[in-house]
Dihydrolipoamide dehydrogenase (Marinospirillum alkaliphilum DSM 21637), 470 residues
Amino acid sequence: MQYQTDLAIIGAGTAGMSAYKAARKAGLQPLLIENGPLGTTCARVGCMPSKLLIAAADAAHQLQQAPELGIHPGTIQVDGTAVMQRLRKERDRFVQGVVREVEGWPDNSLLQGSVQFVSPNRLKTDRGDQIEARTILLATGTRPNIPSQLLNAGDRLLTNEQVFELPTLPRSLAVFGAGVIGLELGQAMQRLGVEVSLFARTRQLGPLQDPALQASALATFEETLDLQLGSEVKTISRTPAGVTISYLNANGQPQTKTFDYLLAATGRQSNLDRVQLEAANLLLDRRGLPVSNPLTAQCTNLDGSPSHIFIAGDAAGYRPLLHEANDEGHLAGRNAALWPKVESRPRRTPLTLVFTDPQMAIAGNSYNQLLNQPGKQQIVIGEADFSNQGRARVMQVNKGRLSVYADNNSGILLGAEMLGPAAEHLGHLLAWSIQQQLTLEQLLQQPFYHPTLEEGLRTALRSAAARIRQ
Ligand SMILES: Cc1cc2nc3c(=O)[nH]c(=O)nc-3n(C[C@H](O)[C@H](O)[C@H](O)COP(=O)(O)OP(=O)(O)OC[C@H]3O[C@@H](n4cnc5c(N)ncnc54)[C@H](O)[C@@H]3O)c2cc1C
Ligand SMILES: NC(=O)c1ccc[n+]([C@@H]2O[C@H](COP(=O)([O-])OP(=O)(O)OC[C@H]3O[C@@H](n4cnc5c(N)ncnc54)[C@H](O)[C@@H]3O)[C@@H](O)[C@H]2O)c1
């Protein structure tokens, strides 16, 4: 069929749906085109099922820790089938919520098919549909990046798209990648009784950049997880017992181990390689992604002029997180309606959280952004150690550290990195304070109740304040 639309949105994920709503509110009748199942990556195979697995792992962990508090829950049994069933039941509720929302939209809002560019204003789908669009939004997200060596695991290779479908928990799991997904899922599986080894080429654990925090993360995670960081994997093969991995460990010693499954958590790759971007007349960056303005979501033409094509969510390669996909989608949908005029909207303060235990947070500017740059002498660091922090000890969660970074002249808080208890909450407090450009002094005038984890934040703020202009 032939379609004509003011706005063709490629991808009905978080960014695409948010753009659809914003564009409709602004008076457009957008056409949303999706080549996979509805429900979004976040709800189907991302944020939500991973946090459901972590919730079960946290429950098991608390029971395992209880005897140290004098509480003896008896033999702890993890029913892997029940864990996975509950995960999928709750996950399906979230997915259904999204699907119902799309189903409530007017007919002809959604087209199924895989989209490619024919020319800057013309798209076609693999089902033979042709779309002429005044403006276009790229909201195509990403898919797992799988290094070719990992394919040797054959039918025992899992990514985030298969792991939540396992009928029960595996006995053993080799996790490749020590980034956010590898750490979150690897630790959760280990706490649920799965024998986990985590392989990574470097010694970097998760996104924290502050050397003191990286060291703390390494010391903490290697207490319980078999970390094969800096290992060199020689061969991976599908064997009758599962997946056999031969590798040189960090000391150069040859090892061979067999696992039930291999989980690839080795980063994400853009889906834009499948849309014939060459036909879109867009300027691309070194990664092959369209050059775009994060304040308008607008792409740039080959000749440097502003394009009628917008980009949002993970496809933009800017901040691949759910709340950012939502914001970018909204911005893109609204600007597509205003096009050729566009509005600039300031971005929120960056906030990254990792739902491990201890959790990780980066609020505002990271260590590298502030301290690996010229002018780093303008930055003071304040620190707190949670190993002896009162409330953290009370709750037996006394691990990790917090670093806050402030401007040495104005005292304004610029960034923070944390590994520690409740980093998801302290990270928000820090991000909100940074967004309001509060100074250390103003922050120290706020109430700090006793005994709370926030007192750890106060320690870090005080230590930075004491170093200002010394
Ligand atoms: C395991 C995991 C856990 C995560 N946990 C968190 C978390 O806790 N917190 C957080 O903030 N973020 C988390 N994320 C990241 C978050 O899920 C993403 O940032 C977010 O889903 C991106 O949304 P999006 O709209 O850009 O992409 P998506 O939701 O992936 O949507 C893109 C859509 O485009 C479709 N598409 C692609 N190409 C085409 C084409 N050619 N034609 C038609 N349709 C196409 C795809 O099928 C897909 O439906 C997690 C991600 C993963 C993988
Ligand atoms: N809590 C959250 O907000 C959350 C949770 C999960 C995912 N996410 C999002 O999903 C994105 C992707 O997560 P991810 O963990 O896949 O990516 P990542 O970039 O965080 O980590 C990828 C890891 O894979 C390693 N790696 C790459 N190639 C490898 C190879 N051949 N062998 C071994 N290791 C290899 C990298 O060194 C790195 O440690 C995140 O950046 C984030 O935006 C967010």
Observations:
- Residues 147, 176-182, 184, 199-202, 265-268, 320-321, 353-355 surround nicotinamide-adenine-dinucleotide (ligand 2) (CB under 6 Å).
- The chain has a mean pLDDT of 97.
- Residues 11 and 139 are 5 Å apart (CA to CA).
